[in-house]
């Protein structure tokens, strides 16, 4: 059970860092997502102490060009090659 809690906390840090990176690169992100604490993250994305990675998927658009969009997803695979990333 403790390993699950560590995994949830790790995914929360990854989630928070990715949102910060998107903001720093000029993408529009909600302040609520940037400020989400670990307890809120657990409630929304890991109610059973296991992160539902599909629910973490989000789409952002550039602040100065709404047509420039980026899809962020969190695959279940431990190691991801280039094939699932290319669209």
Automatic annotation (TrEMBL):
Q: Which GO terms describe its molecular function?
A: DNA binding; DNA-directed RNA polymerase activity
Q: What highest taxon heads this organism's lineage?
A: Eukaryota
Q: What positions does the domain RNA polymerase Rpb5 N-terminal occupy?
A: 6-86
Gene Ontology cellular-component annotations: RNA polymerase I complex; RNA polymerase II, core complex; RNA polymerase III complex
- One Pfam family of this protein, by short name? RNA_pol_Rpb5_N
Report keywords, A-Z: DNA-directed RNA polymerase, Transcription
- Biological processes, Gene Ontology terms: transcription by RNA polymerase II; transcription elongation by RNA polymerase I; tRNA transcription by RNA polymerase III
Q: Which InterPro entries match?
A: Arch_Rpo5/euc_Rpb5, RNA_pol_Rpb5_N, RNA_pol_Rpb5_N_sf
Among PANTHER family, the record links this protein to: DNA-DIRECTED RNA POLYMERASES I, II, AND III SUBUNIT RPABC1
> Which protein is depicted?
DNA-directed RNA polymerases I, II, and III subunit RPABC1
């Amino acid at each position: 059970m403790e390993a699950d809690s560590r995994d949830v906390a790790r995914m929360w840090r990854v989630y928070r860092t990715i949102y910060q990176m998107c903001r720093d690169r000029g993408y529009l992100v909600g302040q609520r997502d940037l400020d989400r604490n670990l307890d809120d993250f657990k409630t929304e994305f890991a109610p059973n102490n296991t992160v539902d990675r599909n629910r973490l998927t989000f789409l952002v658009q550039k602040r100065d060009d709404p047509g420039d969009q980026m899809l962020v997803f969190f695959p279940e695979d431990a190691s991801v090659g280039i094939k699932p990333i290319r669209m």
